[in-house]
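Lab notebook: predicted structure, single chain.

Context: the supervisor wants predicted structures on file for every construct in the current expression panel, including those that have not yet been purified. This is the next one on the list. No modifications to the sequence; it matches the entry in the shared construct table.
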Amino acid sequence: MRRALVILVCSVVFSDDACAHGGRGVRGANSGYESELRLARIAAEDLDAKRTPGGSTDAPPRGSAQSLATNVRTADYDWRQWWALNRWSVLPERADLMRRRARWAIQAGEPLPDIAARRADRRAQRIEHVETIIIPALMTALSPAARESDEVRAAAVLALGKVARDIEAVETIWAHAQNAANPLLVRRCATLALGLLRRSRAGDQFPGAMLDVQRRRLLALFDDEAYHRTGRAFAAYALGLLADQPFGPGTLDGKVIARALWRRLDEDYRAHDLPVALLTALSMHHRAALPPGAAKGLTRMVEGAWIQKRHWNHYERGHAMSAQARLHAVEWNRIVWYVNSTQRKFPTFIRMSTFLALADQVAAVPDDYRKTMAVSLIVSMRAARNTLTRGLAHVSMARLLNEDLRQGSETILEDTRALKWLSEEARYRGEYYVVRSSFAALGLGLVAHDLGPGVKKGEAVRTVTARTLRNILANDKNRLFRASVVAALGCTDHDEAVEPLLGLLGPRVRLGRSETFFAPVALGQLGRRDARVLNALRRWHANESSPAELRSQLALGMVMLGDPDARTVLLHELAATRSTWAAAQVVLGIGLHDDPGIVEPIRKMAEDRRRGDGVRAYAYAALGFLGDPEDRGSILKLLIGSNYVLRTESSTLAQTIL
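Prediction complete. Output recorded below exactly as produced.
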């Protein structure tokens, strides 16, 4: 029976992204969510629904992200979706993890290493491996003579998009994208791989004229009505990913592409996927590239007016709200008006989109609007009847308060009851309130996140939030709610968070508990290289009774702490695990580990035909991670700030790939 690999061939976003494609979004959503329920069949058409996604017949730990991947909606589904799509913004980059590894080997009295020199050396080694090992291996796998399976080719073409350095590699990707005879899986992944040509550093970027060729090709793919709608949507997402890359002559710094995207919104598409993809791609361009009237048109879409020759449904209006925020195409006083008006004027989806947009763009809120915004949020939270709407307002409030503190202001902290309100809301009051309480707990962690020593009252806030969350963990017994508290503790960066997290990996731990599943990466976030922490991670990884999904989280925690044993653990896990989801987490850990010595063993694993296609596909994906010049993957521009409650089939699939 064919392994369930398909669109998860590259990776899943950190520990929980499997939950981002496994069930209904908001109860009562319109028919667009019916397509989302088919994602398991897209991943493996002939896989029995009672089996785990990796083909194992073992039941996943109840309450873990793995159980959500099998279309089981649990009480904590909503906050896990948000956490899956936004966790990258609160986790260390690969460069920061290297600092941890560099400091690990320092003995007492030794001088501090030159981190900048080590980073430069590691980058040079990565470039050398890309040219001599990784690209040749990927090109061989994609050649017709190799006769590889669809899964392997899909993984290889995505990896090639991450590491491509010349026109030959780009043309190979295009050949797989435009060939209508290719399986949909391969063609769709190749289409998105053209967007993964995005490079953050100016020295790594492709020439504008060459990228313009790819943009024209992507527009042609989008216009191809014979192409499956998810593939067409992927073409739009790829155009969005290339929006901050160089442009050639005649494109007017992106104005031509932005105009083309806006013009294509005229059509009343039968499915939500295509207009949502167009709005997402448009929102990733610079505001100056918008055609005349587009900013005002987005505002009218949100408000439900007739625009672009038609009315707009709730899905499209919600994504128009997200696009406005990303483009800063709406005045902040109007955002305040939206927040104050959502209870009366707008439907639930628009309210949620407003709070998501605010949380995503909180750094752009002017200083003189932050307090006004905070007061409006408190009013909206009190009035909100929908529990998810109220929960998302908690996240917006938390990020607003955190940004105010980081800007050196204490206005919101002292003049509002924002922190006390979050603390009161983060108390479990029964299963009906689990979403609201979970988001409030996450909010407490986000308030304390990244408040360095230079932030006034930063230490006091971190202490208060860590103690509050620690007390909640000690007193509240609902395991689904406690999992959110564990995730929040990892954000606090406080020593008091270590002990309760270690307690979840103690000698009498119940491995099936949801809070245990989140503990290893939460410890990795804290970055405390205490011997007790590493021993706990190593002990439970060595325990044969540990589920594969927990073992992958333990491996990630070891990587984030700079454990010298992480390399051996990762290689063993990739070769041994039968769980598709767990293998994806291991691949991500390999990329974060960024060890030049691991490249050759991974290449051998990828080319070893005695192994199954699933393991080999993940090995090719790992090569892409190891050679990726980005500290954080390009696809994260789609993920962070994603309007996850209004996801379509294509956005779910695209957001699952790193």
